[in-house]
Each structure stands twice: as C-alpha cells, then as structure tokens.
C-alpha cells in the first residue's frame, strides 16, 4: 500500500517507520498496524557485487527459502539412488537441470514476495520501495528507485536492514568470487567449486552443490562451525568427508585470478561438454608455502556484516560496533537513542535466526503499543544447519556447558541411531547422532540438545518448547516415544559420554 499524499494530521507522518524489510521488521510492522498504528516500511536493498537483487521478505525469502529448496533438491538425488531398494525401476538415465531449478526457485521467490506485499496491504501497512536514511531525530529521508527523495517523520523508528555476506579483501575476490546470495545467478552449473569458509553457510553451500553432483572443496577459513558444539561439528565434517567432499586444512585464501585457458565440464542438462573460464586460486598453507589450484567457481562464506553503514545512524548518535556495524541494544531492543530500536541480525551480540527475529518483532510492537512487558528471551534459541545430514541444536554446546557449570556438574547423554528408512538402502548406521547435555545439580535439567540426522530441525522443535519449561532428564525419560520414528531416540538415552570414554579406555588396555 503506497504512502498517503498530503500533510499529516498529527505531529509526525507515522507512528512507526521501519527501515528494512527484514523478517523482524515485517513482523513489528504488521503487529503494530494490527494495533491501529500508522506504519510505513522502507525497503530497497542494494544488489550484490554480482548484481543479484533481493526481494521484499528479508532473509526468510532471500536466504532461508532458497537454502531449503537447494537442500531438498540435493536430497532428492540421494532418494533417487535409494528408490531401487524400495522397488522403483527407473526406465531412463536421471539427470539434474540446474537451469530449471534456478528458474523454479526464482519464480517462487517472486510469487512469495508479491503475496507478502498483498498481505502488508491487507494489514494496513504502508510500503515504499525506497532506501531509508536517518537525517535527524524522528526524521528519515526516503530515496526511491527513480531518485525521487522525500522526508518523512515518525514517533518511533525500527532498524531491520539485516546483513550481507562479507568479502575477504584479497586480490580478485570481488571480481571473480561469488557469495551464497549469488548462487542462483550462475547461468550454468558451478562446475568444480571451492567454498571458502567453515561456517554453517559454507558447509550448507558445499553440501547443496555436492548433492547436485558438483565436485566441491571446502577451505576451512577460519575454523569449522565457530560457536557450535565442536564434537557435533567434527561429526558433520566427517560425514561430508566420507561422502566425498574435499577439505583443505590450515590454509588461507591469498589471491583469485582468471586464467587465459578454459576447462571443459560435462553438463547433465545437455549431455555435452561445457567450456568455461577457470579461476586460479592462490592460497597459503600454515607452513607459509604458496600453492595454486584451478576451480570453475569460488564461493565465499566467511561471515556477514550488518547493513547499517549508509542509513544515517551516526547522524543521531546510534552506537554500533566498528568492526561489524552491528547495533548495540538493551534488553528492550532499544538503541542508545530512545526512539530508535533494532531487530534481527543488525543487533550486536545476539543470536540471529528468522524465527527469533519474527518473535522479537511481535513482542516489540506489543510493548510499544499494547502496554505489554514481555521481553524477548535470547537464550535457548533453536537453530538448524542444512548440511547433507541436517544438524539442529538448542541451548548450550558441550564446551559452553563445561565452562559455565564445570565438567563435574555436566552429564552428557548420547547415542547413534539408524532411521528406519535408511535400513533398506543400508546407509551408514553410525551417521545419525543425538546428544543431551544436563546440569546435574539442577535435577539434571536439560541445558543443551543436539540432533544430527534427517529432518533434525523438525525433530528438535517440540523439545525446544519443553526446554523453555525447564525440561529435565527424568521428564525426558518419562516421555513416550512415537514408533516408528527417529525422535524417540531422545526418550531412551542411557549411555553417557563418561561411560563411553571409560569403555574406550578399557578396550585400549
């Protein structure tokens, strides 16, 4: 819904003005409009260096949905292999079409974004496809695509501009490398790919591409899944390694350049060789040696920085971290300027997921306009990593639990499990794994829960609610499992890591 023309009836043009159409910003806007407030969203994100444009919908449409589509596409390839064990007979060679996948995903993003605009209109939220910049207290300058500028005022401002992938700043990275948001901009399959970064985003991208038949190498720069449980991270790495993903250890990217020659890659779409320019990658080993390898695509997944550098925060004194651009906020999501709030991944020092941003946005609107006092709980936030073997976690990692409570006060229950649907195709028995971390003095309260296996995020969701209610190991054991199903493994854990380590030591004697 376009903003109304003409003068405002009150002291400000709007009650609430949201800069950025991220998931949290959309949530706070819709909730506020439902509470009869006049709300405007400004959203115009700059395209990536490769020209990839973002649609209205924040990370939900531009990142999360794309991740899920790519993961499902890659998993279907494995399902085709398994299908023969279930009696399916394939009459012809099965191939994957990168072009058709890209077209289908892009069309779905477009439809979802259009539906979102219609939803905003139904909710009574005004929307303007324009870049917002704070120019004075309560005042934002909106610059539309045409270049037209207008100044708008609001009683309250919310920043929800999200974040974007970073570049390393080495020679050639901006010219020749892509990031996760550019994957679907490739006109043909990526060919031999180097993924730089051991982040969740990096391992996900590597897994997607490998599942689609692409030869993939991962350069763990800087480390593997920082912030996640490291024993779980090692299991994820091992599963990918055994599957065929190559890992480059203790290396750092030094330079990327385009070579004069070209490589030939077999296209599963046309069944013909495809000629493409190759990229020569120079990297430095931990011994200081310089090495080179050629790749068709180099994808950077080395972290993200907040999209806050050009929205005028410094003009009104909003405090940000200089290194990341993320905004300092208090427990009410309020910045150092009373009338300005921040939601989502622009916040400093807080977890960032789409679900959390939506939840925080709704609570903020209710505090501002309904008189509620409920604050967003930024602890025990569930997250999922869409690696080939999905990983989901809630609460503390084992390392964090030991640091917080001391090793003697922490008990870790764990088990491998074999999903029933894996038995006929005889997939690896020792791949899927769960771990429950308990605080012993507090009646073995569950402080961390980690699942690695098919649909791990869905498996975990119900247990997250139980953790919010103070779930203990005794209560978990008293839960009746659903058979046949993978989640029931969490209700019958008896083996602890201490027991496993003792058995291992006894076996080595």
Describe the structure.
This protein is 30% helix and 26% strand. By secondary structure, it is of the alpha/beta class. Strands 1, 2, 3, 4, 5, 6 and 17 form a 7-stranded mixed beta sheet that branches. The protein has a 5-stranded parallel beta sheet with strand order 8-15-9-10-11. Strand 5 (139-144) and strand 6 form a beta hairpin. It is globular and about 75 Å long. The N and C termini lie far apart (73 Å).
In short:
The chain has helices at about 25-35, 60-85, 100-125, 175, 200-210, 230-245, 315, 355-370, 400-405, 455-470, 475, 495-509; strands at about 15-20, 40, 125-130, 130-135, 140-145, 150-160, 165, 180, 195, 215-220, 245-250, 250-265, 275-285, 290-295, 295-300, 305, 340, 385, 390-395, 410-415, 430-440, 445-450. It is of the alpha/beta class and about 500 residues long. The strands form 5 sheets. Strands 1, 2, 3, 4, 5, 6 and 17 form a 7-stranded mixed β-sheet that branches. It has a 5-stranded parallel β-sheet with strand order 8-15-9-10-11.
Descriptive keywords:
12 helices, 26% strand, globular, alpha/beta, seven-stranded mixed β-sheet, 509 residues
List the helices and strands and how they pair.
Blueprint: E1 14-19, H1 23-34, E2 39-42, H2 58-83, H3 98-123, E3 126-128, E4 130-136, E5 139-144, E6 149-159, E7 163-165, H4 173-176, E8 178-179, E9 193-196, H5 200-211, E10 216-219, H6 230-243, E11 246-248, E12 251-266, E13 273-285, E14 290-295, E15 297-300, E16 304-306, H7 313-316, E17 340-342, H8 354-369, E18 383-385, E19 391-395, H9 398-405, E20 410-417, E21 432-439, E22 445-452, H10 456-468, H11 473-477, H12 497-508
Parallel strand pairs: 1-2, 1-6, 2-3, 6-17, 8-15, 9-10, 9-15, 10-11
Antiparallel strand pairs: 4-5, 5-6, 7-16, 12-13, 13-14, 18-19, 19-22, 20-21, 21-22
Helix pairs in contact: 1-8, 2-3, 2-5
């Amino acid at each position: 819904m376009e903003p109304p023309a003409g003068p405002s009836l009150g002291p400000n043009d709007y009650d609430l003005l949201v800069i950025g159409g991220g998931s949290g910003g959309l949530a706070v806007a819709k909730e506020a409009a439902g509470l009869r407030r006049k709300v405007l969203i400004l959203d115009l994100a700059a395209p990536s260096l490769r020209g990839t444009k973002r649609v209205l919908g924040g990370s939900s449409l531009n990142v999360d949905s794309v991740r899920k589509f790519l993961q499902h596409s890659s998993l279907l390839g494995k399902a085709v292999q398994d299908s023969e064990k279930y009696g399916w007979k394939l009459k012809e060679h099965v191939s994957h079409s990168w072009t058709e996948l890209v077209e289908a995903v892009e069309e779905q993003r477009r439809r979802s974004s259009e539906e979102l605009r219609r939803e905003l209109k139904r909710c009574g939220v005004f929307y303007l496809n324009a870049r917002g910049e704070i120019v004075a207290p309560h005042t934002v300058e909106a610059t539309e695509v045409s270049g037209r500028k207008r100044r708008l005022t609001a009683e309250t401002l919310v920043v929800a501009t999200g974040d974007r992938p970073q570049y390393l700043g080495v020679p050639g990275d901006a010219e020749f490398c892509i990031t996760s948001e550019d994957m679907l901009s490739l006109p043909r399959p990526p060919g031999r790919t180097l993924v730089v970064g051991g982040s969740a985003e990096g391992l996900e991208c590597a897994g997607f591409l490998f599942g689609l038949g692409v030869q993939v190498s991962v350069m763990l720069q800087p480390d593997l899944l920082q912030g996640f449980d490291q024993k779980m991270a090692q299991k994820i790495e091992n599963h990918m390694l055994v599957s065929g993903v190559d890992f480059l250890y203790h290396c750092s990217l030094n330079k990327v350049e385009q070579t004069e020659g070209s490589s030939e890659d077999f296209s599963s779409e046309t069944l013909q060789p495809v000629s493409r320019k190759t990229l020569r990658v120079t990297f430095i080993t931990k011994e200081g040696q310089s090495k080179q390898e050629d790749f068709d695509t180099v994808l950077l997944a080395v972290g993200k920085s907040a999209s806050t550098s050009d929205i005028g925060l410094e003009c009104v004194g909003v405090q940000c971290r200089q290194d990341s651009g993320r905004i300092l906020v208090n427990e009410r999501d309020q910045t150092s300027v009373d009338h300005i709030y921040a939601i989502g991944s622009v916040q400093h020092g807080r977890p960032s997921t789409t679900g959390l941003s939506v939840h925080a946005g709704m609570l903020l609107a209710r505090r501002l306009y309904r008189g509620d006092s409920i604050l967003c709980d930024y602890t025990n936030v569930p997250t999922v990593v869409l690696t080939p073997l999905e990983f989901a976690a809630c609460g503390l990692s084992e390392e964090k639990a030991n640091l917080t409570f001391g090793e003697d006060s922490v008990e870790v229950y764990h088990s491998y499990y074999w999903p029933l649907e894996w038995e006929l195709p005889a997939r690896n028995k020792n791949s899927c794994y769960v771990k429950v971390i308990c605080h012993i003095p507090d009646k073995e309260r569950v402080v961390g829960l980690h699942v690695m296996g098919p649909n791990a995020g869905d498996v975990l969701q119900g247990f997250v609610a139980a953790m919010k209610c103070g779930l203990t190991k005794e209560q978990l054991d008293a839960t009746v499992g659903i058979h046949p199903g993978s989640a029931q493994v969490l209700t019958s854990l008896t083996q602890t890591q201490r027991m496993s380590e003792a058995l291992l030591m006894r076996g080595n004697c």
